[in-house]
């Protein structure tokens, strides 16, 4: 089998397409806001501070109607149906659809003193709850960072959920990434979810398109609300409003599979663009003998370094907060003791930090694998003549070559190999072993021998 000519695929293809000008034109404050975590259409760009909850959810009418009906019923507004409200909720939806922001909007509608049951969007309560770092005395917002969450990780939340609100009529507990709960953690939450305090609303958020993936026992005790992914046009509109070119915005929307956070990262972050190119190019590299293993190991190094950079910044910020909390800068007798307390506290965080590093690395690698899967999917669509939009329109040359050289079964097998690799990474297999296995399977699937 002849190798695919590398000439058709300059490594800079997508970086050039995405254009660095866009990055420079971004207002600095917006550029870093949600790059590595999440963000969504539910936060309108024009004047986010002034929009009511209804306006913020305008792009997702089914979500808006459910949330506002529930909040209105919770406040007993005239003409509302009390059955619209319940205490335990599960918000699911594809990654980047805005589950957490929908939960924040719900909290604002419940807690807003200016327009109870509606959420004015302008009062101090609303602005605190709807901001990038949600805050309010009676709001508990938890976004865990480890690979999985055990019983220890939910203990505080159980206590918080049992506490009465202090100023707002409701205490709202939002648990993002609840899909990371271990079975035992999920079980320890059962009672809280089943019979929460009468003044508590619990919202579990899980990135999933199939709610059956989520703990069956918890799911059956919650009311489920699906947060759909935004349309390509909605994402393009948002990214263009933030300064991206329409072409970049459209490519990012399509290639991110309508994940707003990921799309935004692609138009703004050249490292993310480079990683995407590396991942997609693996489909070509596998035709070049050992070159594919080298490319895979380069991808792992890139991901590991990026995860380190992200977490070093987080660690430094935490160190600073710890030092502040312990009263660093003290002089005299107490100074040495304070320093040793600070050191001890930082050391205590080490296991959590290692777990966070692993999770970041996993997330970045998983995104790369989803990118790689997209090129085999594009090739398969071409092969069977399906008239669907390509996942990677800027790599149509590679998709065409794969379609010409690899059988239909081979393209399916390649995608299955990627699914298997993602699963193996999730159960904590060493990334090098997982990716070497993947390269081997891709070579067999594509008969690259
Ligand atoms: Zn308000």
UniProtKB/TrEMBL annotation:
<keyword id="KW-0548">Nucleotidyltransferase</keyword>
<keyword id="KW-0808">Transferase</keyword>
<dbReference type="Pfam" id="PF13177">
    <property type="entry name" value="DNA_pol3_delta2"/>
</dbReference>
<dbReference type="GO" id="GO:0006261">
    <property type="term" value="P:DNA-templated DNA replication"/>
</dbReference>
<dbReference type="InterPro" id="IPR050238">
    <property type="entry name" value="DNA_Rep/Repair_Clamp_Loader"/>
</dbReference>
<dbReference type="GO" id="GO:0003887">
    <property type="term" value="F:DNA-directed DNA polymerase activity"/>
</dbReference>
<protein>
    <submittedName>
        <fullName>DNA polymerase III subunit delta</fullName>
        <ecNumber>2.7.7.7</ecNumber>
    </submittedName>
</protein>
<dbReference type="InterPro" id="IPR027417">
    <property type="entry name" value="P-loop_NTPase"/>
</dbReference>
């Amino acid at each position: 089998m002849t190798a695919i000519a590398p000439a058709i695929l300059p490594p800079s293809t997508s970086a050039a397409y995405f254009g660095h000008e866009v990055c420079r034109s971004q207002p600095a404050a917006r550029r870093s806001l949600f790059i590595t975590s999440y963000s969504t259409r539910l936060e309108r760009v024009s004047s986010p501070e002034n929009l009511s909850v209804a306006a913020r959810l305008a792009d997702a009418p089914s979500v808006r109607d459910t949330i506002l009906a529930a909040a209105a019923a919770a406040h007993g507004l005239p003409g509302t149906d009390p059955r619209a409200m319940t205490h335990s909720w599960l918000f699911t939806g594809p990654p980047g659809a805005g589950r957490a922001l929908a939960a924040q909007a719900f909290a604002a509608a419940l807690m807003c003193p200016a327009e109870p049951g509606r959420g004015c969007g302008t009062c101090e309560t609303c602005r605190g709850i709807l901001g990038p770092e949600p805050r309010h005395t009676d709001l508990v917002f938890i976004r865990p960072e480890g690979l999985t969450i055990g019983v220890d990780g939910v203990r505080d939340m159980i206590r918080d959920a049992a506490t009465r609100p202090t100023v707002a009529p409701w205490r709202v507990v939002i648990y993002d990434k609840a899909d990371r709960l271990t079975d035992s953690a999920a079980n320890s939450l059962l009672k809280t979810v089943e019979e929460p305090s009468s003044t508590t609303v619990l919202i579990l958020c899980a990135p999933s398109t199939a709610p059956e993936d989520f703990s069956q026992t918890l799911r059956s005790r919650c009311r489920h609300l699906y947060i759909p992914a935004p349309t390509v046009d909605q994402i393009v509109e948002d990214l263009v409003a933030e300064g991206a070119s329409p072409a970049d915005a459209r490519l990012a929307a399509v290639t991110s599979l309508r994940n707003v956070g990921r799309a935004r990262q692609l138009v703004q972050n050249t490292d993310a663009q480079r990683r995407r190119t590396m991942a997609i190019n693996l489909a070509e590299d596998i035709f070049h003998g050992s070159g594919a293993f080298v490319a895979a190991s380069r991808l792992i190094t890139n991901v590991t370094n990026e995860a380190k950079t992200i977490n070093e910044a987080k660690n430094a910020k935490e160190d600073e907060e710890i030092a502040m909390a312990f009263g660093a800068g003290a002089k005299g007798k107490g100074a040495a003791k304070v320093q040793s307390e600070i050191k001890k506290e930082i050391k205590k965080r080490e296991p959590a930090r290692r777990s966070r590093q692993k999770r970041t690395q996993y997330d970045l690698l998983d995104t790369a694998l989803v990118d790689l899967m997209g090129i085999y999917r594009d090739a398969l669509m071409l092969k069977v003549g399906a008239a669907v939009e390509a996942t990677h329109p800027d790599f149509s040359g590679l998709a065409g070559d794969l379609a010409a050289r690899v059988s239909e079964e081979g393209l399916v097998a390649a995608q299955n190999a990627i699914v298997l690799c993602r699963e193996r990474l999730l159960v904590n297999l060493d990334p090098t072993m997982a990716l070497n296995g993947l390269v081997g399977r891709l070579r067999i699937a594509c008969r690259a021998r």
